[in-house]
Amino acid sequence: MGEFDLIDRYFKRPARRVALGVGDDCALLAPGPGMQLAVSTDMLVEGRHFLSTVDPARLGHKALAVNLSDLAACGARPLAFLLTLTLPQANAAFLGAFAQGLWALADAHDIDLVGGDTTSGPLSVGVTVMGEVPTGLALLRSGAQVGDELWVSGHLGEARLALEAFRGRLSLPESGFAAARRALELPEPRVALGQALRGLATSAIDLSDGLLGDLGHVLTLSDVGAVVELGRLPRSPLMSVQTAPVQRQCLLAGGDDYELLFTAAPQRAEAVSAVGRTLGLRLTRIGRITGADQGLQVLDDAGRPIDQGDFTGFDHFKRGVA
Question: Where is the PurM-like C-terminal domain positioned along the sequence (predicted)?
Answer without folding.
Answer: 145-293
